[in-house]
């Protein structure tokens, strides 16, 4: 290489470094200036998107959501298609950079959990603006027409926190960068899931169809809440999730609780005995074989958790709790263990519907959260064997006529259960992304080994080569899955800034 | 005494004996002929009475029922008044015999358990006619217009079995006897309760007001089902009953079951642990002190139970059960023990309403059935102490702000709980009544120490001198308290015959 060559390369590097630094700095500032100027429009777009009912079981509703997204992203230069593999629709899209530009695949989902409207402070698909979390004392509703939007306010609607914000925020980031004339050269691909809250039962089919189209240098999963400390975080894993429904049986017709009380088997009591037997007093799972396949936690993961701010005391106070299930265990460690959550329990009526009868059956719904190594089939088999050791007949069917109903338990795993996933901390993309986000400057980005929640990431792991990292944007107290789900406006705004920074940073990635 | 006097007395006795025998024979035959001729009219009256909604909490509805009864019994020569002591109305009535005639006080109730109409095969207050128990395979609905009513058919409506039949059947018996010209000389008093299914919370006040008016030679409680063998029975006792509602607490807002599952306390799981701890595997109550006051079962009671036909195997087969709670124990003994029945259980949703959240609270409703000796306050205190020994704070209130919600249990005993009652078998009225009913001839009348169900008999024991015996008329499979409650027509007809026989028999009672 000639000395002129060396000088030219040095200048080239210098320009690259300078442009890198100034460009990144610009991206955050550009995004901030943009969302401050366009707040009303961005919030209005978010509100319109949230107004579309999005329970995944209703395909017609999901189609309306998909078409809304297509129109919305087309304005930002995305080509897209809506596909389905027999389930709810998915939106697959891309906005191409120059030939050979770095690429990023962004995942989000646009369906939401089912709703029980009567429990909500306002109808779940008529978004409202609140001064605070509607479940907080003193929170009140505000009119939508505002000159200035306080970042502490909340937008309340199903999917406000989980997971309609990423589409709106990402498009605002692109709008900001395009408007500034500094749009980074990067290929952006979108994989928008219309049935995540049902466990994405047809995702495998969809991925099989589009895997080659969505391959990228990095897969960024945009879902889940930020750390409870309010800190930005990169999350490297998710728990797997399964739903198991149980039904126990008593007499084949309702019986008077006086005439038959402590003679006839009570299905509510049978159900409780079965469920209580799954854990010991401290919350440790006692089902033989259930945890056999669990992958050990690595030393780096232990170190990463230790480096995180402790939030347990704060969250407990906030939630009105004095102790965690496993006394003294910090949340970040608890979610690295498998969980069995009794999410639903129903036997006879309570309150005004209570009657003095012994019911023919009682029901429970379990949410099983799996950790890396656990296989859904093995977990289910261990549960079945556990109940059988307790003297029960376990089957996916109702008890047959003439059988011992009180010894029968119907156990049905709902379709769509899946295993966990965890990216090793030492993966290069992890430190690269942390570096990009740390440029935002206000705080160091946390690296969290896993979130407690679930995403069907294992399928992407099976089908794509891209390293996978999760970048959550929602406030931790977004009431996701429950009533009065919400997004704090500050989180919407910071998401716009993060996405701008990430697009700019990734565009600089050595190819 | 002269020989003429002796002869006259002998003739008198002979006439009395002869008239007694022939009169009794007549009463059953008269009643049978009458209800066979008047079936359509009697069934139609029953249907009209059952068409009146009668959930005791709705006083206006209960007033309509009371007025129906007043009109209905006035036609049979009863004077009546409707009174209340701040609760639902009661109907107090009498039909006087000659001065010094024997007297009987008949108790029945005309309210019913709350309904969940969606569970019923037909609307609970639109009576329907069925070929069999609607819960039986192959049962079908029939038109009301019939030339002949098969005694196996069922009238289906709330309170068909519990407890509107006695008023209709008793009036039919009186109609039959009056029409025959052989109406026995007896004073019949009625005490008709409009709030029994709520535990008759104001019965004490009503009794205090009317005790002297309703005093009689015998109090006949007309409620409850006949023996499962189908045999007529006199029942000498009832269990007491209390309702205790429990609420347990988790986080003060719904939490995502993934992000917080096996860290945040789950109120459903806390509730189950508390409830399961109340009994051992065999159903024996393990709450310290709970059974301390239980009155021992007498040798006569043991003997009476032993003399009864064993129905356990039959009932188990009928109900699809293979074993009773306390393995091998016969039903008649099980109901002499105190029962804790979890009648309602609710935490989160099941089925289509299940969501992946940890709920802020969970609820249960317990029906406690007490036996003689147990005092409601002592039972409640032992439950409270039991939960406290498990580390819980027990209070009738919600947890205060800032407290450990997961260690709080709200425990509320609903008003109207009451203690048990049992008439000793050796009471003369018991053998007298058994003698009268045995004249019906088809079968020997069973004498049952107690029923499993509850009636507020203890208040009558406290306020009246009359011996108290229960004479049930409903089929045992009447689905009382549950959906598709029903009365078998044969039971309505046999009730008419029994009442006629009892009125005739009691009229002969030595004063």
Automatic annotation (TrEMBL), chains A, B:
SUPFAM superfamilies: Zn-dependent exopeptidases. Residues 1-24 form the signal peptide. InterPro entries: Cyt/Met_Dipeptidase, Peptidase_M20, Peptidase_M20_dimer. Residues 237-389 form the Peptidase M20 dimerisation domain. Gene3D superfamilies: 3.30.70.360, Zn peptidases. Keywords: Hydrolase, Metal-binding, Protease, Signal. This is M20/M25/M40 family metallo-hydrolase. It comes from Candidatus Paraluminiphilus aquimaris. The lineage of its organism: Bacteria, Pseudomonadati, Pseudomonadota, Gammaproteobacteria, Cellvibrionales.
